[in-house]
Design brief:
six-stranded antiparallel β-sheet, globular, alpha+beta, Arc Repressor Mutant, subunit A, single chain, cytoplasm, 2 domains, Phosphatase 2c, domain 1, myristate, disordered C terminus, metal-binding
Length: 390
């Protein structure tokens, strides 16, 4: 299957933590890809005297995992220790100065990794996108380089989201062409699907052009948003394996509905990743969910509705299997397709039936003692034709 496995690797890496009036949970899964190339960072309380500050990021590697891994271990230090950032903090912490310091950190780590790569005679050709947030007591700094995405939910709606850096974007395309490149099949020189990234040094060797004028730029876009106590709910940072199958509003609605039934942010993050796999994502998947004090709280009514929905789905699966009678037990694909054709109330918004596949699968397996691993088409992914706008 080329760059894909015969069946997805669904084991997950999880972590969670809290501090600075924030709670976070994260989940990452290899999925269908042959290699896991994602990485992430979650730090509450930053070095250099920035205890009230926090930093979270997701790195989506390509052509290898080296750059993503290096960034997850060293990017924060490059940001917080560079002289631009340090002077911003020591003065009156002006927003523009902090943004400049973050940009400087990106350019510095990219140049540093290039030096390391050249010492190894250019062995490493990998690259990585980066999406992150630096949260100060007064501001949320969204940081984006590539096509991973971050968003803020405030007051029950999507308040802000980062813009993906795709080669076909007019400003990105202009830079690529000015550097002597072209955009073909929506890729840089017909090859790379992102126009900004760390690493990817094969695309950063145009003589006479600065680091931010190359075919691929390591410069992040940095957005500063004033915090709104009570209104700010949560931040989602995720690689494009998530956004490929869920739109901003869908994912926000889904997360909101999950926070009404559980406080466990690892569990919510796992549900995001599983739901996106069942919606058809073929990529590595990583998500960090950061909750403010104003995040939705567990509601007894929502918990009851969820339990009733699970019970209803279990009963329906049993009915579908029994209906086959002498024809034998239908495969799971048949069960999912039958349920997909029905109007089922109270399915989680954004996740829909795909988010309940684990419940359906559990009761199916219990009722089918003769099942074998090959009863399900590994290429089947459940999704309504009109249930998502990828």
């Amino acid at each position: 299957m080329g760059a894909f496995l015969d069946k997805p690797k669904m084991e997950k890496y999880n972590s969670h933590g809290e501090g600075n009036h924030l709670r976070y949970g994260l989940s990452s899964m290899q999925g269908w890809r042959v290699e896991m190339e994602d990485a992430h960072t979650a730090v509450i309380g930053l070095p250099h005297g920035l205890d009230p500050w926090s930093f979270f990021a997701v790195y989506d590697g390509h052509a290898g995992s080296q750059v993503a891994k290096y960034c997850c271990e060293h990017l924060l230090e490059h940001i917080t220790s560079n002289s631009d950032f340090q002077s911003a903090i020591q003065e009156s912490t002006s927003v523009e100065s902090v943004k400049n310091g973050i940009r400087t950190g990106f350019l510095q780590i990219d140049e540093h990794m290039r030096t390391i790569s050249e010492k190894k005679h250019g062995v490493d050709r990998s690259g990585s996108t980066a999406v992150g947030v630096m949260i100060s007591p007064s501001h949320i700094y969204f940081i984006n380089c590539g096509d991973s995405r971050g968003l803020l939910s405030r007051g029950g709606a999507v308040h802000f989201f980062t813009q993906d850096h795709k080669p076909s974007n007019p400003l990105e395309k202009e830079r690529i062409q000015n550097a002597g490149g072209s955009v073909m099949i929506q890729r840089v020189n017909g090859s790379l699907a992102v126009s900004r990234a760390l690493g990817d040094f094969d695309y950063k060797c145009v003589h006479g052009k600065g680091p931010t004028e190359q075919l691929v730029s390591p410069e992040p876009e940095v957005y500063a948003i004033e915090r709104s106590e009570g209104e700010d709910e949560f931040i989602i940072l995720a690689c494009d394996g998530i956004w490929d199958v869920m739109a901003n509003e869908e994912l926000c609605d889904f997360v909101r509905s999950r926070l009404e039934v559980t406080e466990d942010l690892e569990k919510v993050s796992n549900e995001i990743v599983d739901t996106c796999l069942y919606k058809g994502s073929r990529d590595n998947m990583s998500v960090v969910l950061i909750c403010f004090p104003g995040a939705p709280k567990v509601s007894p009514e929502a918990v009851k509705r969820e339990a009733e929905l699970d019970k209803y789905l279990e009963a329906r699966v049993e009915e579908i299997i029994k209906k086959q009678g002498d024809e034998g037990i239908p495969d799971l694909v048949h069960v999912m397709r039958t349920l997909a054709s029905e109007s089922i109330p109270n399915l989680p918004p954004g996740g829909e039936l795909a988010s309940k596949r684990s419940v359906i699968e559990a009761v199916y397996n219990k009722l089918n003692p003769y099942r074998s691993d090959d009863t399900e088409d590994p290429h089947f992914s459940f999704k309504h034709s009109d249930s998502w706008a990828g």
